[in-house]
Design a protein that fits this description.
Elements lengths: L1 H22 L14 H8 L2 E5 L2 E2 L3 E3 L5 E2 L1 H12 L7 E5 L5 H7 L4 E2 L7 H4 L2 E10 L1 E6 L16 E5 L3 H9 L5 E5 L2 H10 L4 E5 H10 L4 E3 L7 E8 L3 H16 L2 H9 L17
Parallel strand pairs: 1-5, 1-6, 9-10, 9-11
Antiparallel strand pairs: 2-3, 3-4, 7-13, 8-11, 8-12
Helix pairs in contact: 3-9
The structure holds glutamic acid.
The site of glutamic acid has 12 residues, from helix 6 and strand 11.
């Protein structure tokens, strides 16, 4: 009698354990088998969902015929390959600036390579590998503009466009908000449209992004060219996934040393006239 009760109780415990295991802990990553570790998911599933920008020429761009091109796309593809996932196993997902932390937290993406600056505030929510590139905040104006020469010249209630949840918008709010009228949009291409139409006087984000837009509109838009911050681009993923951090850092280092890093920058960023910077040291480890 007593033994059978013990057996029954154990059966219930085992069943409950199986049910929990079947749920995969409830934090499944983009249709994966349930692992929250990107390295093991890549190894087991041979698939990854990666967040990139869709509207930043030179970095992350979805073309009219549905291709994904740019330096961030190349970095992401290289990392995926090192983790055991071919390009055909990658699902690309748009990661707008303000959505990046949420996409990672919710497990909608495995990692993000999207001009994503490593900051202390973001490091409370997500983890980073890298940096793999260093940019600087700058300004883009219309070709005929002569009075905007740097952030200090954003006076007289000038209208400036940037993107919600981006470090350049936050920097402007903190340092220059009294003098300038900041309009925050979802994507940088929204700012480009406003700048071309005359709705705003300038737009701000990282120089490498702005150089890509300037090259798209020769004779219409120009980069001011005085970087005023340091933006260390990192690969973002779930907070505390140290195995993934180590693996991604190794992939970045390999990409830099085998020539692929420079080759990708020359192809994707070179045509905009942007000077390719030196390889940065890995800080996130
Ligand atoms: N690097 C900056 C950031 O992470 C600006 C570029 C962007 O919004 O993607 O916020």
């Amino acid at each position: 009698m007593r033994l059978s009760r013990v057996l029954r109780v154990s059966a219930v415990v085992v069943a409950a354990g199986l049910a929990l295991a079947a749920c995969g802990g409830g934090s499944s990553t983009s249709g994966s088998s349930g692992s929250t570790n990107v390295v093991s998911k890549a190894k087991n599933d041979k698939k990854l969902t990666i967040g990139i920008k869709f509207d930043q020429p030179g970095l992350g761009l979805k073309t009219a015929d549905g291709k994904y091109v740019g330096f961030d796309v190349d970095v992401a593809t290289y990392i995926a390959k090192q983790l055991g996932v071919d390009a055909s196993g990658i699902t690309w997902k748009e990661a707008q600036s303000a959505q990046r932390e949420d996409l990672i937290k919710k497990g909608d993406v495995d990692f993000i390579v999207a001009s994503y600056s490593i900051t202390d505030a973001r490091k409370k929510v997500v983890s980073f590998a890298g940096p793999y590139f260093v940019a600087a905040q700058d300004l883009l104006v219309r070709q005929d503009n002569t009075d905007i020469t740097g952030p200090e010249s954003l006076t007289g209630n000038k209208k400036l466009c940037s993107v919600k949840g981006s470090t350049p918008a936050q920097n402007i709010q903190k340092k220059y908000a009294q003098k300038v009228q900041l309009l925050e949009r979802a994507k940088y291409t929204d700012c480009v449209t406003s700048l071309l139409s005359g709705e705003v006087d300038a737009m701000t984000t990282d120089n490498v992004i702005l150089a890509g837009y300037a090259a798209q509109y020769p004779g219409k838009l120009k980069l001011v060219g005085k970087g005023f911050t340091t933006e260390n681009y990192g690969v973002g993923f779930k907070l505390g996934d140290t195995e993934t951090q180590t693996a991604i850092n190794a992939a970045i280092t390999k990409m830099e040393s085998d020539g692929s890093w420079e080759a990708s920058l020359k192809t994707n960023v070179g045509p905009s006239g942007f000077t390719i910077p030196a390889v940065p040291a890995i800080t996130e480890k």
